Amino acid sequence: MALLSATSLWCCFKVPASGPASSSCWYPQGIHFSSVNAAAYTRGFQQDFSLYEKSTISRLGFSSSELLGEAISYRARWSSKVSQVQAIQMALAAEGDTKTTKTKSGGGIRGKLNKVVLAYSGGLDTSVIVPWLRENYDCEVVCFTADVGQGVGEMEGLEAKAKASGASQLVIKDLKEEFVKEYVFPCLRAGAIYERKYLLGTSMARPVIAKAMVDVAREVGADAVSHGCTGKGNDQGDILEDPANEPKKDMYVMTVDPEEAPEEPEYVEIGIVSGIPVSINGKELSPANLLAVLNELGGRHGIGRVDMVENRLVGMKSRGVYETPGGTILTAAVRELESLTLDRESMQAKDNIALKYAELVYAGRWFDPLRESMDAFMEKITETTTGAVTLKLYKGSLSVASRRSQYSLYRQDISSFEEGSGIYNQADAAGFIRLYGLPIRVRAMLQSGL
User: Fold this and answer.
1) Helices then strands (H, E): number in the chain?
2) Do 210 and 148 contact (CB within 8 A), yes or no?
């Protein structure tokens, strides 16, 4: 099975000077962003695809391309000066450098394929790619859309649009529960955060989409899969992403302005079992429903806005603005519970491994054996991370109101400054200090010639 990379304008967002912009990832609509977090999406998609497929991926003469991380399955609200006609012309011009000829044995300009599954958003980009594939490969095109929670509106009219573009059918897979349970929650348990801020929403969605796309290709008997992409990313004309510019208020779609959030704080209790969230205020919910509730709750209080400059895989920096209300709440809850259940060495080791874990996910290496091995470690180290954390939500901020666990390593009778159970004897400190400071003392003696 081949992976086709058609040069196109798979829409992404820079930080706009003004006007709204949106797309989606963390279910449902868990990340709306206006950034190009796109570097290496194609590389990441190809890595996730190839590791899952376990086969050689061959490029079929296409120009260098990049499937943008933010373009999972959505229709973009354009806010650039580039018209759709100009965009099509730009896409076609990008292909003009490749010399092509009609094959003598029939088929398309570039060859012959029987059936291709196209990752389809319904936007300008993938709508153009459908006839492009048919012309260049004389193939049947099956469009594939993954529902990872981008909202009902994103699916409206999608089938009619796909067929109008020349596709034989549109296959939509509901991946919401699988996405949250098998991809979001493992990253949450691992504490995987890329470059201190990014909660990896797009990066986590890539592998579940790649996996489902391969499954669909097998189901329909396709001999290739395709995605719309560019080599670097599409800046959509004059849209700005200068880090010196403050994000405009009207660009946010999931969260209210913290200044306009309710005047009264709201408390929410998150129940956690072995590092995985299972309930809200005592009510157990499925993974996707749990995250949906927290997205709405956090958004109401302006929780989860992130403005960052990140290092993309290919070496350049990109400014991105994200909204992740539910993910922000869950990340805080799990981390606070770990403060009770993990000892110092375990916590430090977990944090160190989490950095590499996040890097692998960001780089599209979800199916890499190293990440899977790290996940086994995370599952083991969080066996006792069970309990409940109550958070206070107020005008864009999170604070901890309560944390408790049956596996808590905190003992008030030991930690208290008052005389406790006798387990801790303050007189022991003198000998400890002498031993702990011995290396420094020996070095000082050497420097003093003693």
Assistant:
1) 14, 13
2) no
Give CA–CA dist 218/225, Å, rounded: 10
> Helices 124-137 and 84-95 meet at what angle, rounded to 10?
40
In which order are the strands placed within the sheet that holds 397-404?
283-284, 276-280, 266-273, 387-394, 397-404
115-124, 264-273, 322-331, 352-361: which has the minimum mean pLDDT?
115-124
- Fill in the amino acid letter for 390: T
First-to-final CA distance of the chain: 73
Count of CB atoms situated within 10 Å of the CB of 337: 27
The residue length of the chain stands at: 450
CB atoms within 10 A of CB 424: 14
Please give the structure tokens belonging to residue 13.
């967002």
Q: Rounded distance, CA 39 to CA 119, Å?
A: 18
Which neighbouring-strand residues pair with 230?
none
Q: Which residues contact 337 (CB under 8 A, 6 or more apart)?
A: 272, 385, 386, 387, 388, 389, 403, 405
Query: Distances from the Cα of 395 to the Cαs of 156, 391, 415, in angstroms?
Result: 34, 13, 34
The backbone torsions φ and ψ at residue 22, rounded to the nearest 5 degrees and listed phi first, read -155, 160
Question: Using one digit for the tens of pLDDT, what is the confidence trace for 309-331?
Answer: 999 888 889 888 999 999 999 99
- Residue by residue, DSSP assigns 125-154 as HHHHHHHHHHHHH--EEEEEEEESS--GGG
List the Cα angle 333/336/337 in 5-degree steps.
Answer: 85
**What is the token pair recorded at 77?**
């609200």
| Residue 228 and residue 3 in contact, taking contact as beta carbons nearer than 8 Å | no
Enter the tokens of residue 269: 């209790």
Predicted TM-score (pTM) of the model is 0.78
Structure tokens at 273: 């079992």
Longest dimension (CA), the chain: 92
